[in-house]
Each structure stands twice: as structure tokens, then as C-alpha cells.
Amino acid sequence: MEPIHQRVAGIDVHRMKHVVTILIGQEDGAVSSETREFGGFKRDMRALVAWLRTHRIQQVVMESTGIYWKSVFAHLEAAGIPALVVNAFHVKNVPGRKTDVGDSEWLAQLARFGLLRGSFIPPKDLRELRIVSRYRRKLTGMLAGEKNRLHKLLDDAGIKLGGVVADIDGVCASKMVEGLIAGGKPDELAALGRGKVRATTDILEAAMDGELSARHRLVLDIAHDHLRYLEGKLAALDRYLIAAMQPYAWAWRLIQTIPGIDAISAAMILIEIGDDPHRFGSPARLASWSALCPGNNESAGKRKSGKTRHGNPIVRYLLCEAANAARRTQTVFRAKYESLVIRRGHKKTIIALAHKLVRTIYFVLVRRKPYRDSTVDYEAASVAKNAPRWIRALKKYGYWPQVAVPNSPIDMTAT
């Protein structure tokens, strides 16, 4: 095999140590090799970049080891040195030679002959936005956990509020919880939800009648305050993410036209996949990268398990959430769900819907056109939405006929 790059480097990335091996091809066909170790501090990254520049390295390859590659990649990107981050599953070392130096040498050899394909690394702005969006997802999980603790605490005290209201963190339920903390009586607390929740006053009063001790109230007060705090921080993150979508407004708005995807979901999906789907090459590759592509496992003519392989778990989570919402809309996604759920079950059907969603996102971004559902009559929907406003305007300016005759043209010159 003829080498593609004559000057390459392989980096075995760790938290506080980076082992770097460079391979340099000579004119006579010989290959010289040199290995050095660098620390994990910023000054060590500068020394690493300077050393690679001295040897005029054409290509650097490293494994995607946790998050430790990000600092190295950022320094190489700032220095203008081409770098690939590759999947460790694709570059398993030769058995029996598993050392840090061996790893870096193997990466450099594979890079020299162009046998590696780099993972998708979004631009710097989107990489930094990922920190915000992924932290928002963590806060959402913390908020759900705090609500569950609130349920358990009230049930422990014999208060069945969670069984008679749709959302224990809703407006009325939240006022009732505040009343419990303040020591309110069941009849007083039930009056807070009168006419605002489905349960009758008697049911609400019975649900609020329990044995709430001082220790229950202490933990209930802390949990309730924590809920309010988390909700405030989530709202602040949402505002920040929406403001950060201005440079990608065209793609952000297009993704929102797909059923089941709202403004925040569209922002978080866009942050993960970027606004240029051509980087993936095809919708199938995007689906595989999103951990939504069926596995390919065939041997001796027999098709074995089609379990989805590993990929980006964040995109998979977001699209499964969107699929659960899309199946409730009067669109082709609902029809697909109803046709598959009978024989595949809910979970596998949601994965199939998420797979359809990610392919739809790819085509929407490539064509730069909003999503158009084959089962929706958009013209009729537009007329139903705007007809009252149109009629009011016609009447206001005297163009509406005195006697409406079905199927007759309207005299637009009448006064």
C-alpha cells in the first residue's frame, strides 16, 4: 500500500498524560518514528502543538476517549493542524501489544495509509453550546426526580394529592403544597382547587387529609423550593438556547415544522447534529450516528439480531421524545405508529418513528424546505384558520355581499 500522508501523528489520550508518536516517511522509503509524552496542562498542550509544527505534521489522529480529547482537539484546531477523532471500536490494537506507546504507534500507522474515518466534530460554537444543552437535559432529569420525591413524601404522610391532580407541580397543586407547608386545614386547601381541577371538593378534601408531621413539612419545604429553583434555571437556559439559535435560524425554524419537535427540542437537536447534514453524506449514516439504525448482522445467509448499535445517546433521547409526541398528531407518523405497534410493541415502534424523524430532518435541512405531510391538506387548514379574519376585513371595507349565494362569485367592486 502506498501511504497517503508522509508526516502523521497518533495520540493516545489520557487525563494527565498524552503519548504521541510521529511517523515521517523518508525519500528512500524508510519511515522514522519518534515518541514523546506530554502532560495535560495548557502549557503541555502548547509544547505538543509546537513539536508537531516543528515536524510539519500533515495529519493527527486520536481516539475519542471520554471528554479528554476535547482539549487536545481545541488546541490543534486553533493551530490549524488537521486532526481526526476516531471511534475506539474501529481502531482496536493488535492483541498482545496493548500499551500507551503501542496505541499511539498503531493510530499513526493507520493514519499514514488513510485507513481511518474521523468522527463528526461540530464547529467550536456548537461544541460550546452542547455544554449548555446537555446540562439542561441533566436539570430536566433532576426536576423529574424532585417531583417523584414530592410524590413519595406526600404519600408517606397519607396525602393523596398526586392521585387526584394531573400534575403535582401545576399551579393549583403547587398552591395546595404551599398550604400544606404553612399548616392549612384540608377544607381550606381543597378550596384552592375548586373549579380548577377535575376532582370534586369532597375528593380534594379527602386527598388532603393526612398525617403531615413537622419533619414532613421540613423536607416538603426544601423540596418545593428546590423545584422552583430548578424551574427558574431551566427557563433561563431555554432563553439562552433560543437566543443562541440566531446564527442558525433558518435550520432551527425548518426543524420545528416537523411534527413532535418544538422550539427547545429543535435547538437541542441542531446543536448536536449541526446545520450542515452533508457532513454525514447520507440519511442512513446520520441515522447510524444517532444510534437509531438497525444493526447489520448476517452470517451464512442468516439474518441475526438487528439491535441498534451504539451512537449519540443525546440525539437518540431527543428524537424518541419527539417520536412520542409525533405519534399523537394527525400526520403520517401516527399512521406509521398504529401500523407497527401491533406487532412490534411500543418501544420498538418509537425507535422506528425516531428513525423516520432523523431521516426527515436530514432531507428538510438538505432541501432547505419546510416539512410537508402527505396526509395534511395545508390549503384547507390555512383557510379554516384565516377565513374569519378575511371575512371581517371584507365586511369592514364593504366588499362582502349583502346576500351570500353558494358557489357564486363575489363582486369585489361592490360597495
Commentary on this structure:
This protein is an alpha/beta fold and 415 residues long. It has 4 domains: 7-112, Ribonuclease H-like superfamily/Ribonuclease H (Nucleotidyltransferase, domain 5), CATH 3.30.420.10; 126-244; 249-367, no CATH class; 385-415, no CATH class. Helices cover 53% and strands 9% of the residues. It has 15 helices and 7 strands. A 5-stranded mixed sheet has the order 3-2-1-4-5. A two-stranded antiparallel sheet has the order 6-7. A hairpin with a 5-residue loop joins strand 2 and strand 3. The longest helix has 33 residues, at 124-156. It is globular and about 90 Å long.
Which features would summarize this protein structure in a list?
415 residues, alpha/beta, Nucleotidyltransferase, domain 5, five-stranded mixed sheet, two-stranded antiparallel ribbon, 7 strands, disordered C terminus
Record the SSE blueprint.
Blueprint: E1 7-13, E2 17-25, E3 31-39, H1 42-54, E4 59-63, H2 69-79, E5 83-86, H3 100-112, H4 124-156, H5 171-182, H6 186-192, H7 201-207, H8 214-244, H9 249-256, H10 263-273, H11 283-289, E6 298-299, E7 302-303, H12 313-326, H13 332-344, H14 346-367, H15 378-396
Parallel strand pairs: 1-4, 4-5
Antiparallel strand pairs: 1-2, 2-3, 6-7
What would a concise description of this structure say?
This protein has 15 helices and seven strands. It has 415 residues and is of the alpha/beta class.
Q: Segments where pLDDT lies below 50 for 5+ residues?
A: 408-415
| Helix amount | 40-55%
Major sheet details = 5 strands, mixed
User: In percent, how much strand structure appears in the residues?
Assistant: 5-15%
Q: Give the overall form.
A: globular
Class based on secondary structure composition and strand pairing: alpha/beta
- Number of separate structural domains: 4
SSE order, one letter for each helix or strand: EEEHEHEHHHHHHHHHEEHHHH
Number of helices: 15
**Radius of gyration, rounded?**
30 Å
Strand order of the largest sheet: 3-2-1-4-5
The average pLDDT value, as a whole number, equals: 86
DSSP E strands, number: 7
Distance between the termini: 85 Å
